[in-house]
């Protein structure tokens, strides 16, 4: 009888494929995010209310927005909104409708020439010309790009306002002092030739921000704002603007903030030079 051969089968088991360490990276990211979150919560719990307000102001500064400037150009606008953006209003459209209404309104013979100087359209045209002159004077300054956030030129009911505005990290006057920085002096000296040529009388007004609750003021606000307005007048006088051109120099303390909802922020600190309209406005029903 034949002997059956013994067959031995050896099965080689292959190792499982390597799954990689992607899960470790994801887990590490998760742990890092949780650590950052709890660190943030700890920092917030250790922050005082005053520090929280300061942080909020830092991340939402009041500044001029180039995309929303009054006429699409530098140093031109009409108002600041609550976020600090410079917004425009359809002044040209309103002016056009006013001109059409005035043309359609009957006037008595011999009166047109008398009223031409005080006509709203003539006043608006004069204001636009003044704004153009002031902007041109400032654009000659080599460092105007750095200072553009601190200079606001806008038409108002009284005439044209030129405001030197403090911003976070860049003030126009030393803190609690009537002494201007050198950059402030350069701006005023650049404006002086245009102000000297224009026929408008000037009103100079100082403003400051309100003191935060519980904090001490560096200076008395009425004296501070009046002193800063007077310092601006003295610089303009030294640059050739006649003293007779100045109608008033006033300090308003913190009574007229730009942002009434947040009177503590830097842009409320400002000195405004108003180019007053040369002629008084015509009463609304004068020509009817």
TrEMBL record:
Membrane topology classification: Single-pass membrane protein
Pfam families linked: MotB_plug, OmpA
Transmembrane segments: 21-44
Listed PANTHER family: LIPOPROTEIN YIAD-RELATED, STATOR ELEMENT OF FLAGELLAR MOTOR COMPLEX
Originating organism: Methylobacterium thuringiense
Main localization category: membrane
Chain intervals for the UniProt region annotation (Disordered): 83-128
Compositionally biased tracts (Basic and acidic residues): 92-105
Cellular localization per UniProt: Cell membrane
InterPro entries linked: Bact_OuterMem_StrucFunc, MotB-like_N_dom, OmpA-like, OmpA-like_sf
Recorded family membership: Belongs to the MotB family.
The OmpA-like domain, residue ranges: 160-279
Protein name: Motility protein B
Record's keyword terms, sorted: Cell membrane, Membrane, Transmembrane, Transmembrane helix
